[in-house]
């Protein structure tokens, strides 16, 4: 038994030595490519997406695809940092789900810049103080985040990517127990995601919306004897607050979709999505006329969201996600026809579908 273990461990040591050598070879090549390109844009989302797609496609196991994806996200993150460290703005403070989304997409070798609001994330990227921003756009339980949609309409920034983050909520408090809790702080979206659990376990507790779940923790700590917050495990660990209940979200599949925003047009990766916003003229059948070009050119729509326009009462804009890159022939033809039918069209960006 001892000799067998010794042999296996020897094999692992030799593989680790090979991995170390190959990782450094990869890093050196990545740095050389950066010098050859001579570009100010370090991140190429389409190239990174192609690498991840290829690794998943070629994965023989036993490591699951999710593990392979995250391993290579980290490898690319640290190789990229040899050239320059990216700065990514997100809704803070530290410990929010937005920070988790940043780490899932960019890895840990980036400089995270927490912001006080979604507006601040946009302003930080627009002013050049961050290379990219990560903002929540919709939740599978609570629907769209209206402020993000409004800012996408107003801003010149492009959508450069997306992140799908499973969201598991916890009740966090220094109270003696559930019976002692009189108020619960959390972001409005998180309160909505956990309302059935709250109705069952804390029906009399006051629910107070905060700017973020991490801010909710700080507010609850001011009155820790009878207050709690809803947030993630990472936030609880960051602030050393006990978790009284885990996975209290009403839907175990609860997922938040985040968008990566930046001043960059992303090239086709081979598996892309395009986001746009448009408005219809005020006449019968106008919305049908907007969607007809997509059907004629066999372009699938994956999302349609209406939002009140700022131009007048009972006027709306429509946010769409469609399959394909805006440079693909059939998508380009559909968008050309759509622009002729719509009162207003703005392409928010084309970007790789999340893996």
TrEMBL record:
Residue stretches making up the ACT domain: 275-352
Q: Where is the Prephenate dehydratase domain?
A: 87-263
Q: Check the record and name the Pfam families matching this protein.
A: ACT, CM_2, PDT
Spell out the subcellular localization from the entry. Answer: Cytoplasm
Q: Which GO terms describe its biological process?
A: chorismate metabolic process; L-phenylalanine biosynthetic process
Which UniProt keywords are given for this protein, alphabetically ordered? Amino-acid biosynthesis, Aromatic amino acid biosynthesis, Cytoplasm, Isomerase, Lyase, Multifunctional enzyme, Phenylalanine biosynthesis
Q: What is its EC number?
A: 4.2.1.51, 5.4.99.5
Reactions it catalyzes: chorismate = prephenate; prephenate + H(+) = 3-phenylpyruvate + CO2 + H2O
Q: Which GO terms describe its cellular component?
A: cytoplasm
For this protein, the record's InterPro entries field holds:
ACT-like_dom_sf (IPR045865), ACT_dom (IPR002912), Chor_mutase/pphenate_deHydtase (IPR008242), Chorismate_II_sf (IPR036263), CM_dom_sf (IPR036979), CM_II_prokaryot (IPR002701), G/b/e-P-prot_chorismate_mutase (IPR010957), Preph_deHydtase (IPR001086)
- Site Essential for prephenate dehydratase activity: list residues: 256
The segment(s) forming the Chorismate mutase domain are 1-87
Q: In which pathway does it act?
A: Metabolic intermediate biosynthesis; prephenate biosynthesis; prephenate from chorismate: step 1/1; Amino-acid biosynthesis; L-phenylalanine biosynthesis; phenylpyruvate from prephenate: step 1/1
Under Gene Ontology molecular function, one entry of this record is: prephenate dehydratase activity
The job of this chain, per UniProt, is described as: Catalyzes the Claisen rearrangement of chorismate to prephenate and the decarboxylation/dehydration of prephenate to phenylpyruvate.
NCBIfam families in UniProt: CM_P2 (TIGR01807), PRK11898.1 (NF008865)
Any idea what this protein is called? Bifunctional chorismate mutase/prephenate dehydratase
Native organism: Candidatus Nitrotoga fabula
Q: What gene name is listed for this protein?
A: pheA
């Amino acid at each position: 038994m001892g000799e067998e273990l010794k042999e296996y461990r020897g094999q692992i040591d030799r593989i680790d030595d090979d991995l170390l050598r190959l990782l450094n070879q990869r890093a050196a090549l990545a740095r050389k490519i950066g010098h050859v390109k001579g570009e100010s844009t370090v991140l190429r989302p389409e190239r990174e997406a192609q690498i991840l797609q290829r690794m998943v496609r070629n994965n023989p196991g036993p490591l699951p695809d999710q593990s392979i994806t995250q391993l290579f996200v980290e490898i690319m993150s640290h190789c990229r940092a040899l050239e320059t460290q990216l700065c990514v703005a997100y809704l803070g403070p530290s410990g929010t789900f937005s920070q988790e989304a940043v780490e899932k997409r960019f890895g840990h070798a980036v400089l995270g810049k927490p912001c006080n609001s979604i507006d601040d994330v946009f302003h930080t990227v627009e002013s050049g103080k961050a290379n990219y921003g990560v903002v929540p756009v919709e939740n599978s339980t609570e629907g769209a985040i209206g402020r993000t949609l409004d800012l996408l309409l107003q801003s010149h920034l492009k959508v450069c990517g997306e992140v799908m983050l499973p969201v598991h909520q916890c009740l966090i408090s220094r109270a003696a127990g559930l019976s002692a809790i009189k108020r619960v702080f959390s972001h409005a979206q998180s309160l909505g995601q956990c309302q059935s659990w709250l109705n069952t376990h804390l029906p009399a507790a006051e629910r107070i919306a905060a700017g973020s779940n991490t801010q909710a923790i700080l507010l609850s700590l001011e009155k820790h004897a009878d207050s709690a917050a809803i947030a993630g495990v990472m936030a609880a660990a960051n602030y050393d607050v006990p978790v009284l209940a885990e996975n209290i979200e009403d839907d175990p599949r609860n997922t938040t979709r985040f968008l990566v925003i930046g001043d960059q047009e992303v090239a086709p990766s081979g598996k892309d999505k395009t986001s746009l916003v448009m408005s219809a003229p005020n006449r019968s059948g106008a919305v049908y006329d907007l969607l007809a070009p997509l059907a004629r050119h066999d372009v699938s729509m994956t999302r349609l969201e209406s939002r009140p326009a700022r131009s007048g009462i009972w006027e709306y804009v429509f946010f769409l996600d469609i399959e394909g890159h805006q440079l693909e022939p059939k998508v380009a033809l559909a968008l050309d026809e759509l622009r002729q039918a719509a009162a207003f069209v703005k392409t928010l960006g084309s970007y790789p579908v999340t893996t």
